[in-house]
Task: inverse folding
């Protein structure tokens, strides 16, 4: 029972301090789950990010589910996911009520503009760290660059690219 409470509290805290969703939460998850608690390895968390993005749903919730399952089975995945989403439900309810009354104020609009800039910096930091850790050989960097170009400029579906690059990884090994 203790592990479920620990999972809930850990993911509640991560969910409470994660702004911007998606990639913005990745450094916090890595620091908490890999560096601080040792529940998963760096390789596992990167795999969870990738699978979490490629599967339906929210990356952060999917990643929380995978980590919870690894730590304490299926019930652990449910508890971790519930812990992660609970702060969001509370915060969204409070913000919706607040914005309803004050969204017209310039200070509120400026605050959200500042938050958006900070989230962009968090996302860029995550991308740089992911590239450093994973595109660390010539061939991996070429695959990264071509995938980025295909998605960003050629408008090729990220799902198709993930499937295609996954197939290449299977065919040519992990080097």
Result:
């Amino acid at each position: 029972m203790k592990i479920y409470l620990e999972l809930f509290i850990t993911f509640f805290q991560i969910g409470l301090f994660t702004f911007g969703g998606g990639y913005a939460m990745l450094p916090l998850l890595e620091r908490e789950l890999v560096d601080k608690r040792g529940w998963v390895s760096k390789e596992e968390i990167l795999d969870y990010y990738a699978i979490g993005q490629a599967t339906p749903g929210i990356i952060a919730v999917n990643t929380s589910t995978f980590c919870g399952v690894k730590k304490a089975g299926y019930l652990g995945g449910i508890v971790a996911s519930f812990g992660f989403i609970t702060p969001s439900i509370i915060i969204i309810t409070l913000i919706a009520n607040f914005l309803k009354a004050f969204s017209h104020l310039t200070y509120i609009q400026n605050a959200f503009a500042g938050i958006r800039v900070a989230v962009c910096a968090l996302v860029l930091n995550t991308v740089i760290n992911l590239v450093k850790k994973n595109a660390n050989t010539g061939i991996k960097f070429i695959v990264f660059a071509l995938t980025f170009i295909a998605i960003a400029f050629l408008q090729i579906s990220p799902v198709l690219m993930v499937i295609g690059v996954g197939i290449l990884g299977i065919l040519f090994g992990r080097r």
